[in-house]
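re the bet — no i am not wrong, look at it urself. input seq straight from the record:
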Amino acid sequence: MRQFSANLLNLAETSYPSYPDLPGHDWLEGLLDQVTITGVTATQYRCTARWRMRERTVPDDMLFYITQGRATVRVDGRDWPLRSGDCAHFSRGVRHSATTRPDDPIQVIALHYTAVVFESLTLPALLRFPVVFPLAGDTAAGQMFHEACREYALQPVGERRGLEALTFRLLLHLIRQHGGRMSGQAPAARLADFRRLLPVLEILRGQLAAPIFIPELARVAGLSVAQFRRVFQRAIGRAPVEHLRRLRMERACELLRHTEKTIETIAGEVGYAEPAFFARSFKSLIGVPPGRYRRQREL
């Protein structure tokens, strides 16, 4: 009993770091309850003086954490200088590239992940993650990046679930400590829109190969066609047809990475009757043809 009391006393006297106040706390709490983490990989790279990442897009989200050296990343046409301790965030579908300083080549941890909310939307898109998180001096974040690398490399029992839990901890840490850099707008209204659209989003994700009919989707959401288009654009940031196209390409990327199915078969599974049209659409969104995407292994 005395030991228990002493432990309580020590706990009461412990100084914990404070967290900044975040707007829309209740909304954010509800949002985080809906997050599902999948597809985590974490690898550390030592880059040569001539290393460069060609312009591309990725079908998931990616944290690009510089542990040593200096680099420049280009995202949507804008350059961002990085140094040790900085972490770039490359959002799915956004064009980006990177180069290292030849006189100070980088070491970097590339952590790919998917954090889905409401079975269809990504957490970084909803919270408007910034392009760069300045994490110099943030030892907790650095430790989680290195722990993820160890977990992914050693693959102990429960590695997948461990990586998912660790990535959620890392994202939660970024939100708590660096949430002021995120620019989510009208959170309560957006959450209401998402909830209204949830049955529609489930239909779109579950029927990738089927054509979509806007009037039917509007009926499912209980809206007129005009209202449905406005609400969808406001909540998701793109039109329903464009959102379905992105879902199809994300699924195609997953099949290209993890199966031996032919490109023709994959095209049919994601709703394209003509493989040539699928290939053109894939290259337009992802940046490379499907065959090259399957062959390449990049950061």
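see?? The first strand starts at residue 35 and ends at 46. told u. also Strands lie at 35-46, 52-56, 61-68, 70-75, 78-83, 86-90, 96-100, 107-117, 121-122, 132-134. so pay up
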